[in-house]
Amino acid sequence: MKSNIIGLSILLIATLTYAFDKTISVLDFELTDTTIKINDVQEKIRTQSIQPLLAQALTKLGYKIIPVDHQLQNKANQGVGYIQSHPDVVAELGRKIGVDYVIVGRLHKPSYLFAYIIARVIDVKQTKLIARHVVEAKGRSMQATQKSIPNLAMKIVQTIQN
Fold first, then answer.
1. Local structure of residue 102 (DSSP, 8 states)
2. Quick count: other Cβ atoms within 10 Å of Cβ 27?
3. Whole-structure pTM value
4. CA 79 to chain centre
5. CATH code where residue 144 lies
6. Which of 15, 30, 31, 37 is the S-S candidate for 47 at Cβ 3.0 to 4.6 Å?
7. Rounded to whole angstroms, how far apart are CA atoms 104 and 120?
8. Backbone conformation region of residue 151, classed left if phi is above 0, alpha if psi is from -120 to 50, else beta
9. What is the pLDDT of residues 93-142, one digit of tens each?
10. Which residues pair with 126 in a beta bridge?
11. Which long-range contacts link 154-158 to residues 24+ away (Cβ below 8 Å)?
12. How many domains are there within the chain?
């Protein structure tokens, strides 16, 4: 038991030491709702909550989060889904704001019962997508989304550390 605690403490210190050197920007998430109910205000609010929740979770894990001006993000995004499939554009945005990684994502809602939170990790220096992470949020509630974010943050951290 004691050795487990010591091992976890060493891992946490190593993670935090590594994290302090890395900067991340988390862009606003997009909503892809394929259910019948179009323009659901609650889903828009839920989607808007993901960016600050993820930024907060990554901050707690020791990463420095650099905010992105909404006008700059909107200028880079030429339409719904554009920056999702153009890591070169995202990397250029990352260079403008001086970060190592940019997270772009969407809330994909194929059903009323669950939604997928999808995050793409773009390495700015390499100008490429290095990972695509998906977590499931079961239920329509904000709590379902909030419970999924720490898992997503850990997946992102594991990608960045490798």
1. E
2. 24
3. 0.84
4. 19
5. 3.40.50.10070
6. 31
7. 5
8. alpha
9. 999 999 999 999 999 999 888 999 999 999 999 999 999 999 999 977 78
10. none
11. 154/61, 155/119, 155/131, 156/54, 156/58, 156/103, 156/119, 156/121, 156/131, 157/15, 157/19, 157/58, 157/61, 157/63
12. 1
Q: For a pLDDT cut of 90, what percent of the chain falls above it?
A: 60
CB-based contacts of 75, cutoff 8 Å, min separation 6: none
Tokens representing 100?
């190592």
CB atoms within 10 A of CB 11: 10
- Residue 86: both structure tokens together: 């153009």
Q: Which two tokens stand for residue 99?
A: 């970060």
Range of the domain at 83: 2-161
Could you tell me how many residues make up the chain?
A: 162
